[in-house]
What we know:
By secondary structure, the protein is of the alpha+beta class. The protein has helices at residues 41-49, 94-103, 113-126, 142-155, 172-189, 200-206, 224-229, 234-239, 328-334, and strands spanning 3-12, 15-25, 30-34, 61-64, 67-68, 79-82, 160-164, 192-197, 209-214, 217-222, 244-251, 254-257, 260-263, 273-279, 284-287, 296-304, 309-316, 321-327, 341-346, 350-353. The two termini are 35 Å apart. Bound molecules: adenosine-5'-diphosphate and magnesium ion. Residues 41-42, 196 line the site of magnesium ion.
Amino acid sequence: MSIEVRNITKHFGKFTALSDVSLQIEDGELVSLLGPSGSGKTTLLRVIAGLESVDPDCSGEILFHGESVAGKKASQRQVGFVFQHYAIFRHMTVFENIAFGLRVRPRKTRPSNAIIDSRVRELLRLIQLEGFGNRYPSQLSGGQRQRVALARALAIEPRVLLLDEPFGALDAKVRQGLRDWLRRLHDELHTTTILVTHDQEEALEVSDRVVVMNQARIEQVASPAELFHEPATEFVMNFLGNVNVFQGRLNAGRALVPGLAVDVSVESEEISGPANVYVRPHEWTIHRQTNVAGSLLASVARFNHAGSIAKVALLTQDSREIKIDLPLERFNELSLRLGELVCLSPTKVRVFPTPDIRPKS
Length: 361
Ligand code: ADP
Ligand code: MG
């Protein structure tokens, strides 16, 4: 089931929750909506589900498999929904929780008990809770409960699965496990899935594509790798991963930061003026020499190698802190000493002109 969102706008009173949002999701894709709290992720999901109406004067539409769902209520759209605090019924066993959506169907479309039974068993296998059917929710861990919530959403064989921060309330280790599990489940079922999350790591790890939202708008839609390596906007650059940012200037295709000058992409060549210059922590070279032309002189302030990479903090002559991530091998090879002077040069920079000089589009 493909989903198309065309020019959707939604206000709550004077507040704009969605501003002319358009998005295309292919059949069988797993797409994440990623953005800070309040950026409109849940609203977009609820509008797709039919749980929230769009503005009365909004001329946009939502299509499932090329067909407008405008006249269809949530119950007719065949979506499976899982929320962060999905209250699975405490008084029902795991089995009955999963069977619920099928049992409440009108008699005409309700499957026989034998079919319900086999479908629930199949779902119990999928969520790796075979043998847990007779337990009550209070006898499950948080992660197991969210898996039951997912099985319950899947029981009705939804055309679309909508997940709103389904792992948000769980601790990091459990989240990681469920994330991997969700991806494997998706690879098995291929149900078109939209996952809302504010956790960039979760979005980058699990999704085919990521939609970055900010202040009721979409900033960028891209594959995880493209998003990380080719952020389209300054917001995306900042939101994904760590950055070192310098207030510098653009001048004839060069980014100038005091003590540093780097060539940047050709597109920026016509632009001159103030700009923010970004370098990710892993995109630096540390030179042992202190006289490398065009590089920044800095002293080693701290380092920490209690992980899969070494994190080094350095101070420039004008007391700016620079954070660098190094492969452990390189870190060991350098054997830096605290206070020692080194030269730093970025291997990649991204430059975003400050708004007043951005070309008018
Ligand atoms: P997100 O899921 O990205 O955190 P939401 O879509 O829930 O963001 O909300 C976007 C904005 O819309 C928030 O600022 C929120 O306060 C506002 N909002 C959401 N639902 C309502 C509502 N029913 N009434 C008024 N404001 C709402
Ligand atoms: Mg939300």
